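U., I forgot to send this yesterday:
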Amino acid sequence: MKLVNIDYMPNEEITEVLGLAKGTVVQSKNIGRDFMAGMKTIVGGEITGYTDMLITARKIATKRMVDEAENLGADAILNIRYGSSSLMSGAAEIIVYGTAVKLKSKK
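Result:
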């Protein structure tokens, strides 16, 4: 699956637009991360526990988007965008979406 965040596929011909492909995950913090994050806010710096949590969440959401696009028969996903929001204290949603397309097969 080809993934790009532009609205066309360089050197490829789009033969069909299949629709929106999306993936989402809600990830929660744990007590250990919360405690360490609280300590880190006192001294400053990156809160690596949260960074790692969000990297993992993005990977899960991206995989779900790709799975959805594959179920549509897509060869690529264009114009990919990520978003995040806080749903409640201690939980964040990561969403990724893009346009699933079929590409002209090369002979």
